[in-house]
C-alpha cells in the first residue's frame, strides 16, 4: 500500500512554526499591498459592488500566522475608508478562512484581538 504525504504547515506556535518563519511571505505581502488596495478601490468604483449589506472575503489557503489576518484587515480598512469618502455606510464583513484540516486554526483565532 502506497502512503502519500500531505504537505502542511507546522503548528501555529513555537520556533519551527509557520507564524515564526513567514517573514518572506510578509515581505511579499507588503510589496503587493498597493496593488491589492488599487484593486479593491477599482471594485468599489463599480456602483453594483456595494449594493449588498454583507461583503464576504475568503482566504482559500490561509496561513496560521498573522499574514492572513493582515491581508484581510487591509481589505476591510481600504473598503471602510473608501465608503467614508463616498459618504456610504460600509458593509458588514464576513470572513472565511480555509485550508488543510491539519492546520492550526486556533493560532489564527488567538491573534484576532490584535487585529
TrEMBL record:
Keyword ATP-binding appears in the UniProt entry: no
GO molecular function annotation: metal ion binding; methyltransferase activity
Record keywords: Magnesium, Metal-binding
Superkingdom, natural source: Eukaryota
Keyword set includes Metal-binding: yes
InterPro entries with a match to the protein in the record: MeTrfase_7, MeTrfase_capping, SAM-dependent_MTases_sf
Descriptive protein name: Uncharacterized protein
Organism: Stephania japonica
Amino acid at each position: 500500500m502506497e502512503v502519500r504525504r500531505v504537505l502542511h504547515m507546522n503548528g501555529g506556535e513555537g520556533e519551527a512554526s509557520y507564524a515564526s518563519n513567514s517573514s518572506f511571505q510578509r515581505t511579499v505581502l507588503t510589496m503587493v499591498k498597493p496593488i491589492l488596495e488599487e484593486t479593491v478601490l477599482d471594485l468599489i468604483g463599480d456602483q453594483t459592488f456595494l449594493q449588498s449589506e454583507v461583503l464576504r472575503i475568503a482566504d482559500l489557503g490561509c496561513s496560521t500566522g498573522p499574514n492572513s489576518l493582515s491581508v484581510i484587515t487591509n481589505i476591510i480598512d481600504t473598503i471602510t475608508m473608501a465608503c467614508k469618502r463616498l459618504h456610504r455606510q460600509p458593509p458588514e464583513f464576513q470572513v472565511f478562512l480555509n485550508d488543510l484540516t491539519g492546520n492550526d486554526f486556533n493560532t489564527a483565532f488567538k491573534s484576532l484581538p490584535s487585529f
